Fold these 4 entries.
Entry 1:
Amino acid sequence: MSISMLLSQIKSLETGITSINKKIDAQKLKEAKAIEKIAKAQKKSMGAKTISTISSAQREYQSASKELTSAQAEQVKLSKQLVDKSKGLTNKQSDLMKAQAKEREQHQKAMETLQQKALATQKSQIQEIIKVDTDNTFLDKKYDVFISHASEDKDDFVEPLARALQEAGIDTWYDSDQIGWGQSIRQSIDKGLINSRFCLIVLSQSFLKKYWTNYELNGIFQKDATTDGSVILPIWHNVTRDEIQKLNLTLTDMLAMNTAIHSTEDIVRSLKELVDALK
């Protein structure tokens, strides 16, 4: 059964339960009024001095007793309906959770399949570029770190970070420095990824939405999968775990630095230690 159908059934059951509870409350009110009438009839009968008054009190007592019995019987009936609908609601909610879990699993598998295809395609493209690159520029320049980022984050964070890394003696592949007028963005990125030891990913809301950052991310995962030791160094920049998780579950499982608590100096110092340890 589809999730939309289950949601519709759950809503219908919840509406039904609300309606039954209102009816039960109404019957409880009738029950209380009937008990009150019975008490008045009994009091009237006890204080009666004439036969007609006694007869009147008895009629009132009998009428109130019928109302009481009817209200109590209706409550029993409604309570059974409430139990049945509550059980039905619990079952449908359980079915919904299972259906949603199955849908999430299918979605995750589909995303993994797409990512694997994208990685395979990019790997093939990189290998082809290497074959046709006769000037050996892939092999000439090596970098300590490749910065993957969204252009929207340049001014407030990435540009100062790149300059700080360079000043610390860390060879940094930064697109503003490496991609010239008329050069292929795709080939430049692929070269940078191939020749960089670490890949620093500035994860932000802008990063999660852009084509080129996702292209870089696919290449980074491919590099990480074929390199001894981890190459991915995530930095969370004004972004939440839930937002990152929607893009890639693997990224949320990696230890990351966060610009909310780590300064540029902290990041540079940590990366410097990693780079120096490999020299």
Entry 2:
Amino acid sequence: MSFFVGALYIQILDYIKDGDIVYLDISHAFRSLALMSFLMVQFGFGVKNKKFTIGGIYYGMLEVAGDNKGVTPIVDLKIFYDLMEWIKAIDAFKNYGHADLLVKLFEKEVDLQHQEKEIFNMFDLNLSLANMSALQKFIENAKRILPILKQHNNPIIKLVSPDIIAFVERMDVKQQSKFQFELASWFYENKNYALTYTVLVEAMVTKECEIKNLDSTNKEHREASKNDLWNNKIKPYKKIVGIRNDIAHQRKSDNINTKKNVSDLETYLLEAKKFINSN
């Protein structure tokens, strides 16, 4: 029976167009239909890639009509669907550092001010681009409104703001190379291994510039520092540069061993940390 109902839902999804508003009435069916409805809505978004919205999920509570002067109340169960959306968004943010779903949901929250929504939006955009310079500016701006997040009454803000606060406080590092290393470590913890390699390489180049009192934002100085790192065989620069280039340029190489490249990252980070923290 569940297979039949599932197949029916899939057929219904074929008729739904992008931009449609869908209303579900689950009063007259098996009790499992409510759960099936929630699952198939998620199936429509995730697998079918449909872009519709749920206007309501209604249930007629006939069982309480006797205690309600014969009137059957109709309740909207959409709140449970909304809760699932928040769960997905919070999970993506907490475990992978992706704030895009949160940003979309926050846009619907009428009790949030523009600056509160904007901090999550800028957090997501800067991380997506991995723009290290812009991220440092974001950290400086975000510090000014951290008290607002800490004292906010919105329950969702209370739930997710500790992660934003922890990120801002962790990244509030003045020395450029240490900031970049912390960012690389954060990307690693959030399983974004490609950006870990990219940012780790840049952190080591920046550190070499700092050691030689060179302007780390100057292209010629960075190129010279790259050559020095390569020629001086600073661990683990050569290895991570090779892997980083394989990833960035999609080139064929003996370094392409995905499982090993991921498992070795922790060691590379530890070795790079010694260099970053050296005088």
Entry 3:
Amino acid sequence: MIMRDTDNPELTAAWATVPEVATAQERHEAAVKLRRDFPRGQTPAEALAAVQDDAIATFTAAGKWPTDYAKRAAKAHADAVAWEAEALALRRLEDLTKATAEDLRDALSADVLTHLGGRLTETLEAAKDAGEILGDVTSAEQAIEAGVDVLDAWRRLTGLLGDFRNVREAQWSVLRSVAGEDERARMRLWIRDGHGEIQGVRLDHVPPHIVDVMRSQTYSIEYLVWLARSGAGYVPTSFEDLEAAVVDSTGSVVYDDAGPLVDYSPRETTIPEPPAPKPTGAERTPVLSY
């Protein structure tokens, strides 16, 4: 695998928006091709051994030592030294261009994650529009029965769901690539708990079946429409951004080797004011006669 190559189109497109990374990727791919196309050769030791074996075989068969042995040995050694020098240079070139490209990827990861955040916004806006047409439909069978417009909305959401999955997969790929071992371990815990999907909303205020989807990442059209309507979907731009969102959605969380230490102290919950009653059209001002 070359430099964390991927078949995820969202991740590929995101990296391509960073020109420096795209250029470094091209340089690395060119270096890989140069080394692969470089013809096989012999090391100096192997080349000398081949000349020696040939001379010994000649002497064994004819009883004469080749008079040009020294000349042949010198040429074979010189050619092998030149071949080995270029082979080593090409291998070093491949390693250095790989390291350079990956270092750039890590340094510019925030730009890539910002691009993915934009793609998520586009996807959710389109999903919200399609969801308005969908109404309460929750299956393809219901969409077929509901008519052409609803069926078209369902099909659009099916395509958007694929885009959404790719964006989320790309998000975690980038975050893992720039995180250390300890940070990746914490991210695994956060993913297991459903973090990295929404911000500005406490998880205990989210419907349980939606939290289950966040935790399992078994995304569905129902979840996509819910997320689009919530307005809370986001892509973290760094590990620190993700960590801050985790704290905001759960309160202060401390981790030990076994995972999060949960604070079970009572929390104050604000109960919203009930909405004003909606007029029914049957109200009228009573007429008081004296």
Entry 4:
Amino acid sequence: MQRRIVVLSIVVVIAAALLITGAVLIQPIQTSAGNRVAVTWGLIGEIVHRLTNGKIEIYQILPPSVELHDWEPTPDVMEKTRGAVALFWTVEGLDEWGAKIAQSIGIRAFKVTLGIKFIEAHHEHNHDHHHGVDVHFWQDPKNVAKMTENIASFLVQLFPEKKDLIERNKTNFLRELQMLDEEFSKALSPHKGKVMITQHDAFRYLGKAYGLEVFA
């Protein structure tokens, strides 16, 4: 019997992705020297902002509304990153240029995806998948939760005086991510085992998390 195919609305899929990424530009606030971190892109910046109540200045390197894949930093980025106590980045093949920037200007670089289990890449789509892994890890809320735990740990190392604030906000944010995961599970459970067709091969983590087969 031919498998039933469920085609999810691209609007719904994009909305789900945006709920997870929170990919917005965080406007920096004026803080004292040594109270600034650099982040490669919006998801990291949003998490740092949530964990610190905006009490740490954030420089987001990737400009808003710019495609992350294959973006390369411009010469002025190096100068703008100076003054940050550390730089947060995610994974090779996506924003490893952040680690190179940190090394070149002599600040600490933190890889915030430590402990996340990456899915092997579909090599026929290697413009989005590098070093053998699919880089769209944030489509699974559990991966964002692990990322949040890592960022919280790194922030406590950098700003131990803010430990109580960071830990409290981490607990609250993890609870929100758990609720999001439960909402996705409830909405998608009737479609478990079915096929999700998308225009772009970026939703395999979502499919794996909720029992869908993804084809692009």
